[in-house]
Amino acid sequence: MAHEILDGSSMQRALTRITYEIIEQNKGVDNLVFVGIKTRGVYLAKRLAKRLNQLENVEIPVAPLDVSLYRDDRHVPDHTQEPTVKTDQLDIDITNKHVILVDDVLFTGRTVRAALDALMDMGRPTRISLAVLVDRGHRELPIRPDFVGKNIPTAMNETVHVAVEEYDGHEDVTIEHN
After folding, report:
1. For 13-31, how does the pLDDT look when each residue is reduced to its tens digit (9 = 90+)?
2. Would you say 31 and 97 are in contact if contact means Cβ atoms under 8 Å apart?
3. pLDDT over threshold 60, residue 69
4. Could you tell me the residue ranges of all domains in the chain?
5. C-beta of residue 41 within 8 angstroms of C-beta of residue 104
6. Is CATH 3.10.20.600 what the domain over 2-22+30-72+92-177 is classified as, yes or no?
């Protein structure tokens, strides 16, 4: 049975707090781009950009990023053909930009590592920061977020689910014991 950690209002407050932190730490919003890790990270990145626009009256570009080809923990059963890496998957130029990488949950760090590899194949940003709605710990790699909505200590046998209205039809963050 899933236990609700954040409801929709709490999620929105966490994203608003992250938005203010981004503005403060960057002393403005010049040269920023948001890159959301598919799937829910894209929707969260769009929300951050919208909130930034409301606060600073500036349109911040948002792009989705599919990291599936860069994962080191997903195995392809047919090794006879190398996957084709699409270096043009971002519809924005990240070279010399400050990229805010956005994801829903930070766990082992492997998704973020894959995203960093993908970003490096697509350009040379001046800086990359990481924003996550939930940091649940249990890192396998030396990766830490710059902006966190909520730290949720979890056990390894628990799963954190983030639901966003745009994709799931409702909003919440739940934790489930497996």
Report:
1. 999 999 999 999 998 899 9
2. yes
3. yes
4. 2-22+30-72+92-177
5. yes
6. no
**Spatial strand order in the sheet of 147-151:** 62-65, 32-37, 98-106, 127-135, 147-151
Cβ burial of 29 (10 Å; 0-12, 13-18, 19+) is: buried
**Residue 71 pLDDT:** 84
CA distance linking residue 52 with residue 105, whole number of Å: 21
* Confidence (pTM): 0.92
Q: Show the tokens assigned to 163.
A: 């639901």
**Strands, E assignment, 69-125:** 98-106
* Distance between start and end Cα atoms, the chain: 9
User: How confident is the model over 128-162, as pLDDT tens digits?
Assistant: 999 999 999 999 999 999 999 999 999 999 999 99
- Give alpha helix (H) positions in 57-177: 110-122, 165-168
- Please give the mean pLDDT across all residues of the chain: 92
Angle at 123 between CA 17 and CA 45, to 5 degrees: 25
Angle between helices 8-26 and 40-56 (to 10 degrees): 60
**Residue 160 CB-half CA count within 13 A:** 25
Distance CA 176, CA 159 (A): 5
Residue type, 100: I
